[in-house]
Each structure stands twice: as structure tokens, then as C-alpha cells.
Amino acid sequence: MFRRNFFTPFSLCLAICFLLFIVRIVIATSTGLGVDESYNARGVFDVRFGYIDHPPLFFWLSHFSVKVFGFNHLGLRFPAIALFAGTSMLVFFTARHLFNDLAGLFAAIFLNLSFIFTLPDAVWFQPDAPLMFFWILSVWLAVKLLLPKTDLSNGKKYLLWALLGLSVGLATLSKYHSVFLVAGIFLFLLTNKKYRFWFKHPGTYIALILYVITILPVLVWNSQNGWVSFSLQLSRALPGEKLSLHPEWFLRNIAGQAIWLFPWIWWWLMRQLFRTISGMKRDTRHALLFWLAVIPILFFTLITLWADTQYRFHWQAPGYLVLFVPLGGYFAEQWKKNALTVKRKIIYSSTLLILFSTVLIGHMNTGFWQFYGPGKITELTGGSFDPTLEGVDFDEIRERFEKEGWMANPDVFIGGVRWWQAGKTDWALRCKKPLVVFDQSISNYNLYQNPLALLGNDAVIIRFPEKNKQPAVEQYFDSITRIDDIDIIRGGRKELRLEVFYCRNFQIPDIESDDYLFSTNTR
After folding, report:
1. Is 55 helix (H, G, I), strand (E, B) or coil?
2. What is the pLDDT of residue 467?
3. What letter would DSSP give residue 441?
4. What is the mean pLDDT of residues 91-120?
């Protein structure tokens, strides 16, 4: 299979990455934006050093991307697609450096056969794509620096430290997870005597200085905004007012991680994690990979014992990303013993990924799996909403706005009662209307629009059905009138009915100082 020069592991990996790059462009242009993507869309126009929910890098990247491709699905998602092709190649280079070419190929193959990496992290407009790229770039640089194949010159040592500091800094500008990269490198150096000399090496401190310089934008912005972004992320890891343990949350999170990765791949990765533990003392490769992988996996899993992280099963993903490197080494060993078994695992995993993705994307776009699909599963677990609808663009909202003349009326703005619902409306209108979210939970919408500029205007509030007859926003308007609902159609079938309220004369409540909407200081 690999005897001919043009069938080298490197050329095959490159060909696979290129093929998947094309496939992901097709997927990106043929599927709607998810809830988080819709919510984030407005941020590409409001370029700043920081945002409430996430650091700014993925907004910056898509800001330039939409200038090339337009404000559409591809414009928002292209950076993720391009970056993940780079992520796959860096996994190849890392595994090749630590093991061999074949290990690099298998590491990249199985990375792309894992659902969370091959679709959400490789296609969706979210901070995870640049995080994964700069995370594995940092790992590759750390491997080349700390475990070189040949002696490094002083100049190269300084260069690698400098690049490592910049890379970890860019990972921090993607997502705050990168603190675990710093911790992993520190613990590796601390727990291995022969590497502790690096604590005295100037290159280490050059890396730290460049790291701090790189993350200055988020430090400056947070210092000017009450450290709101840091405190929000920290609050998600803390218990509520009273500490109580919830083993059901813990088990749900582990199950969710396995499903996102695919259970068999998750099991293979967990075996590699324990393999790195058992091999730490005799092999520094295992020690370094262990410390770079274990902290995010362990931390974000343990906090679910007391913190309800809900369905955020992807927070551990950077740690799993590193484990594909030793997994590639393992399959390279197995290839020598029984190539047929490895081929079968690739074929089975590929078949299941293609089948699962085809059914999921097909159902999301057409709703063909009406009676036995995700909606039915949700009903069995006590819900009533098909979660795949969150990945459908609510174009009917734009049609209604154009029909009523609201789209062209500068005196009408959008109102929302939940940030995620408002995001779906905002994207449907392509962020062309001012938007105010009447929700006490803080979000990026607190940044984008000063409500004082909209006083005296009317609002159209769109929300998902709720038991209350009307939104609790009476103090802000002279009158609130329920008007005709908007039906969301998928595959010729009414899948969701959105409630619509016309609100007249937006105003400041009587007690302004106690009002969350007008007292916020994060704009």
C-alpha cells in the first residue's frame, strides 16, 4: 500500500485532507447555522478586542473571510474548514516526529473519523476550530523543542520557544482552555528532573513574555469591562449557592463525550490515555503527551459533579486531540502485526461516520426522519423539540419582515427573550436590524446595541412558544399585541410555530438604576 513513492503516508494524508476540505465546503454551504453560530454572526461586524462569551480570534478570522466570500454560510465557516485541514496535518507531523510516518497517517485518519472533529470543529463557525489548530501547533512545537531527534542549536531553541509562546497566546485568543497547555508543559518540566533546566533557560521566559503580549487584547478589554468574560467562564465551573454533588451530570457528561467522539474511538483514546500513564516513567514521549492531554479531560469532566455544564460535551476535546497522536503510534504497531485488522477498523469507522452524518444532515435539511428521529428520541426523554431544528435557518422570519414592511422601517427593531432565540432571528435577517435581548443573563448582545438609541421605536419580539401569554417586557412599552405566528417549514411540514408580538414605543422604565437593560456597563 505504501511502497510506491506517490503513495507515501504524507501524500496520502495530504490527499485525504484536500478531499475532506472540499467535502466540508459542500456541507458548510448546504446546512443552516446552528444556535451558537447564529448568535455569533453579528460579532464579525463588531470587531473589538474582547467579547463576553469568547476571546476574539474566531470573530476576527471570519470578519476577513466574509469580505472575500460574503456574509453567508461559507464566509462565516471558511476559516474553520481551512484551519482544520491544518490541524490534521499538524497531527500527522506530531505523530511522525514521535513515532513514524505511518503513525502520522493513522493519527490524522482517525482524527477525521471522529464526529466532533470532522464536523463541528471542522465546519462550524465557533472558537473551537482556531483553538484546535493552535493547540496542536503548540503541541508540535513543544515536541520538537523538548523531544528533538537531533541536538538543537541555541538559535533554534530560542526560535522554538518564541513560536511556542506565540502559538499558546493565539490559542488563548481562541478560547481560554489554553491555560491547560501552559499547565501541561509546566508539569512535564516539573515532574522530569532532566528537563528542569529549562526553568533556568532564557527561552522559557521569552515564550512567557510573548505569550502575555499576544493575549494583551483580551486582558485590556476585560480590565475595561469588569473582567466580565473571565468571570463568566469561571462561573460555569463553580457550584451554585450551595455545593451539591450530581453523579447523574457526571455520567451524562462522560456518555456525551463518548457519543460526540463515537464510542469506539472514545474507548481507543481512553486506552491511549492509560497507556501514556503506564509508560510515563520509561518513555518521555508518553509523559509529555499525558500532561498535554489529561488536564482538560480531567478538569472538565470532574466539574460536572457539581456544575451543570448541560450538553457541553466538547470542552474536553483539546485533550482528546492530543491522544490521537499516540493512537496513531498504536495503529502503526498494529499494522505491522495485522494490517487487515487496521484496514477493517478504518473501513467500519468510515462507513459509520458517513452513514451517521448523511442521516443527520439529511434529516436536518429535510426532516425526513420525522417519526423515529431525534424528535422522537427527545420525546422519550421528556422533551418536545427536535434539536436538529436548531441547525435550520428560519428564513420564514425574513419573509414575514419583508411582507410587513418591518425590514425597511428604521423605526422597528428586533426584540428577543433569550439570547439563543434572538440569534436565530438575527441571522434570518442577516443582522440588518437593531436587536435588544430582554433577558437578565448577560451575552454579547449587551455589547452590540445601546438601547438608549432605540427609545421611541417599536419592536417585534419573536420567541419560541411559552406558557405565558406575552413576554415579560410590559415596563418597556406602551402596548404589546400578539399578532400572527410564523410557521417554520421543513420538508413541506410545519415543524415549529414562533410567537410574534408587536410592541409600541420603547421606553425607559420608571426606576432606571434598578433595570438590568439600561444599567449594564459592558457596552
Report:
1. coil
2. 75
3. S
4. 97
Average pLDDT value for residue range 270-294: 93
Band of pLDDT at residue 208, cut at 50, 70 and 90: very high
Phi and psi torsions of 234, nearest 5°: -65, -35
Phi first, then psi: give them for residue 489, nearest 5 degrees: -105, 135
Contact 271, 286 (CB under 8 A): no
Q: How many residues does the chain have?
A: 523
- Most confidently modeled range among 175-179, 329-333, 365-369, 377-381: 329-333
Residue 393 main-chain phi, psi, to 5 deg? -75, 130
pTM of the model: 0.93
Q: Which helix (H) or strand (E) holds 485?
A: strand 479-490
The Cβ-side half-sphere exposure at 195, using a 13 Å CA radius, reads 19
Cβ atoms < 10 Å from Cβ of 275: 18
How far CA 227 is from CA of 177, 181, 382, in Å, comes to: 17, 22, 38
CA pair distance 116, 111, nearest whole angstrom: 9
- pLDDT, tens digit, 9 for 90 and up, residues 286-308: 999 999 999 999 999 999 999 88
Contacts of 35 (CB under 8 A, 6+ apart): 390, 420, 423, 424
Extract the C-alpha cell encoding 372. Answer: 423515529
- Tell which residue, 451, 454, 466, has the closest CA to residue 498: 466
What is the Cα–Cα distance from 30 to 345, expressed in whole angstroms?
29
- SS3 string, 227-256, reads CHHHHHHHHCCCCCCCCCCCHHHHHHHHHH
Report how far residue 286's alpha carbon sits from residue 87's, in angstroms, rounded to the nearest whole number: 21
